[in-house]
Design brief:
The chain has about 170 residues and is mainly alpha-helical. It has one domain. The protein is built from six helices and two strands; from the N terminus they run ααααββαα. The chain has a two-stranded antiparallel ribbon.
Length: about 170
């Protein structure tokens, strides 16, 4: 069963990720975005329903609209935001270092942070739109309201759990 709500070609088409970025890097980022961003917004129950629906090609019209209009832009923006570090840094057996390419000049850390902040703002807009649509139209999606937290399932966050905890 496919475990992605959208494919890598869609990310390359709609996002800022260059066509020459290796698919495995995008795939890992997409997996992490779906697991850490989309699943908590939807709930485990509704997320699993959509994954099944994409795989079985049996999404209803409301689910298709939700996926195309709200979830896809949120995923693309989140991947754009999250992939920057994967493309900037390489993890090797002995250290982490910056990646280099003969066809592009690397940005400074300050420039990288400016880019990240721009992409984060975009992502937050799409995230809020997705949550707002779900809250306003919850009757269209029974799995969104009738979720299960049994066996470690996640309840939908409904926009209330964006708390950052940092340890210094």
């Amino acid at each position: 069963m496919s475990s992605f709500l959208i494919d890598i070609a869609t990310i390359k088409k709609l996002g800022f990720v260059n066509k020459n970025v290796d698919d495995p890097i995008i795939s890992v980022t997409l997996r992490r975005v779906q697991d850490t961003v989309i699943k908590p917004i939807l709930s485990t129950t509704f997320y699993n329903r959509l994954i099944e629906g994409v795989y079985n090609d049996d999404l209803n019209a409301d689910e298709i609209n939700l996926l195309n209009t709200y979830i896809t832009p949120c995923i693309v923006a989140a991947v754009d935001y999250r992939i920057i570090n994967a493309l900037t840094y390489e993890t090797r057996s002995k250290t982490v270092g910056t990646a280099r390419d003969e066809h592009i000049n690397p940005v400074t850390i300050e420039e990288k942070h400016i880019r990240e902040e721009d992409l984060k703002r975009d992502f937050e807009v799409y995230r809020k739109e997705l949550i707002g649509y779900l809250c306003d139209n919850s009757e269209l999606f029974p799995e969104y309201e009738n979720y299960s937290t049994d066996d470690g399932g996640i309840a939908p966050d409904k926009g209330r759990t964006r708390t950052r905890v940092r340890f210094r």
